Amino acid sequence: MLEAIPAPLYLTDSEGRVIRHNRAFAALLGRNSEQIAGWAIDSLVARVPCAACAVSERQHTPGVRSYQATVTVGDGSHRDFLVYEADLTQRSRSSGASAVGTLIDITARVQAEQELRALKEALEQRVAQRTAQLDAILDSILSHVAYLDRDFRFVRVNETYARGCGHSAEELIGRNHFELFPNEENERIFTRVRDTGEPYYVQAKPFFYRDQPERGITYWDWWLRPVRGADGSVEGMVLSLHDVTAQERAREEVERLNAELAEADAAKDEFLAVLSHELRNPMSPILAGVEVLRRTLPNDARTQRTLAIIERSVRLQARLVDDLLDVSRISRGKIHLQQTSVPLDAVIRAATQTQQADAEAAGITLTTFVEPDLWVYGDPDRLQQVVMNLVSNAIKFTPAGGRVRVEAWACETTEGPSGTESTCIGACRRRRCQASPSERVCIVVEDTGIGIPPDLLPRLFDMFRQGEVGGQRKAGLGIGLALAKGIAELHGGCVRAESAGPGQGSRFVVQLPLVPPPQSVPAPDVAVTDTAPIRLLLVEDNVDTRHAMAESLTVLGYQTRAVGSGEEALRVLAQWRPDVLVSDIGLPGMDGYALLRQVRALPELKGTLAVAVTGYGRDGDVRQARDAGYDGHFVKPVDLTALDRYLRRRLAGCPLG
Q1: Residue of 405 and 467 predicted with greater confidence
Q2: Considering just the CA atoms, what is the radius of gyration of the chain in Å?
Q3: Which string of DSSP letters, residue by residue, matches 81-109?
């Protein structure tokens, strides 16, 4: 019966020796019966220790067990088998057989399980490595990073997150986020991201730690991103937080400081405006008085020289006030240019004529040469201011007997009219210049003065910078050169200084874009012949200014009436219709704007020429006067000759060239 079974079978006695077997068992071992009979089964079939078993030893039913064994088969190789043995002691006492066993080849299974086990170990090792790498990456991230499941429980956090929220990672893992950090608004955000799958991002989101009130309000950049599972549903979310508390508090501090600076800047502007107003007011009666005295006193040299000194001093003070205001405007980018095509010779002629008296008083020869037909595009008053400041600076630093020369020519020439070599072409390539050398003009102010030390040249145009040469330091605020540079740059030009050193004189070069002459040149001034005195009403609350200006205007040929308030002006206007209204703005009670509104409301006075005369000279003040209906705006101290020229030309209908 054993031989009829194809599976290898064997019988053992009570000592575990083989007493019978079939051919399949012998064929498996590659032995004959004599080599098998009497041998202990354990010597033929080597039991594998349980620790190394691919298949564990088991007790199936009473009397039947199985275990894994290694067998050396006929070809000498080792194969793995699953051995099943059944106890026969209770069934076959007469045969002497104690157990029957059979072997099932599981070599392929064992090899597969060994490969799977090795693969699993490799995968576990790789996962452990990747986990360690991920932990290292997460812990190196400066931002706070946490992974939470659908129920908002912490699954993973980096060290920054744990340290930042004041808890250890062990305290966080498995805990619900909102049990630790309750916040209804944030919980709604988490719920929306989980339910919609839409990420959430916000900057500088405020947060208050209830369990750490000493931290105050903190600020965070938030990234809350959903993590989807294989089925596409949200199974968790990554929370990334970046602490921007320091930056946000710094920003708030900067905003606070900026607000304070803006307030201080506005207060400074207001102070300068009031200061200029208060400084200009007393200058007006002085200049007006000078004009009266010049026309009424004997025309002797001493008297006229004294009046010229007074006038020069007042105009110098007025220019200092204007320079201070202009520096403030330029620094804030609020200077207003009234640009047009300007003949350069007119600009330089006006500037040098203004400075001629100062040069003569200092014993300095002032000469000019301007190449004809040079035109620039700019504000003529501002360009004149540039030349005046440079000439004034040259006069200040040139001893008596010295020379100051002003020249202008097109930059394509390599030599100036006086024979000195021009370096303007190279300087045209400076960063601030906006035109090529062939499209520029050069204005050169050269003196034989005390010169400029090399170490001062780079800082010469800095605000409030005053230099010393040989122990000499001149009076002044140190804003003239800075102002000239700022105005030139606003016109697309530049300014530079040159000097061979102390005692070698100095040279200032201004470069401006050259423009073609206009198609039509403004007509020259024409004399205005009056057939009757012009009636002029002056409204000025300062008694000295009112009397001095009224006297001067009368001397200039106007039929003048002067009052000290808007209410008085309206009473005069009800009886007397003037041709011109000249009014201060800062009047007590009814100011100059309110006065003009009432004047313009009277049909018979709608066409009256109205001119504002005020100590406030900011661009906004000029615009406000224009918007209020004033035809002209003059800043104190008023140049009465200029005012007279303006009024007569306007009344005669002549263009204001």
Answers
A1: 405
A2: 52
A3: EEEEEEE-TTT-TTT---EEEEEEE-HHH
- For 444-469, letters b (16+ CB in 10 Å) and e give bbbbbbbbbeeebbeebbeeeeebeb
What pLDDT digit, counting tens, does each position of 392-411 carry? 889 989 999 999 999 999 87
**Per the omega criterion (within 30 degrees of 0), is the bond before 637 cis?**
yes
Which pair of structure tokens corresponds to residue 95?
Answer: 């045969």
| 404-432: pLDDT as tens digits | 999 999 876 444 444 444 444 344 433 33
Q: Which of 156, 196, 162 is nearest to 174 (CA)?
A: 156
The whole-angstrom distance between residue 108's C-alpha and the CA centroid of its chain comes to 73
Rounded-to-integer distance, Cα 484 and Cα 480, Å = 6
CA dist 211 and 317 (Å) reads 66
With H, G, I as helix, E, B as strand and everything else as coil, classify residue 555.
helix
Cβ 107 vs Cβ 82: under 8 Å: no
Q: Residue 440: which residues within 8 A CB-CB, separation 6 or more?
A: 410, 411, 424, 428, 433, 493, 511, 512, 513, 514
**Per the structure block, which two tokens stand in for 190?**
């988490």
Phi, psi of 369, deg, nearest 5: -145, 125
Q: Are 147 and 131 in contact (CB under 8 A)?
A: no
Instruction: Calculate the CA 40 to chain-centre distance.
Output: 94
Residues in the chain: 657
Q: What is the torsional sign of CA 353, 354, 359, 362?
A: positive
Residue 600 tokens, joined: 């313009």
What pTM was computed for the model? 0.48
For residue 240, give the 3-state DSSP assignment.
strand
Q: Measured between alpha carbons, how far apart are the two ends of the chain, in Å?
A: 140
Which residues does 545 contact at the CB level (< 8 Å), separation at least 6?
281, 282, 284, 285, 288, 636
Task: Please give the Cα distance from 127 to 147 (Å, whole number).
Answer: 18
* CB 156, CB 173: distance < 8 Å: yes
User: How do residues 487-523 score in pLDDT, each as one tens digit?
Assistant: 899 889 999 999 988 988 999 999 999 988 887 545 4
Structure tokens at 470: 């040989």
Instruction: Write the single-letter amino acid at 217.
Output: I
> In sequence order, which ranges of 63-181 are alpha helices (DSSP H)?
107-140, 159-165, 169-172, 177-180
- Three-state DSSP at 175 gives coil
pLDDT at 105 over 70: yes
* Whether 643 contacts 631, CB under 8 Å: no
Cβ atoms of 460 and 440 closer than 8 Å: no
How many other CB atoms are there within 10 angstroms of residue 188's CB atom?
Answer: 10
Residue 270 pLDDT: 74
Residue 497 β-bridge partners: 508
> Quick one: 582 exposed, middle or buried, by C-beta within 10 A (0-12, 13-18, 19+)?
buried
Residue 441 and residue 467 in contact, taking contact as beta carbons nearer than 8 Å? no
Q: Residues 219, 207: contact at Cβ < 8 Å? A: yes
Q: Tell me if residue 362 falls in helix, strand or coil.
A: coil
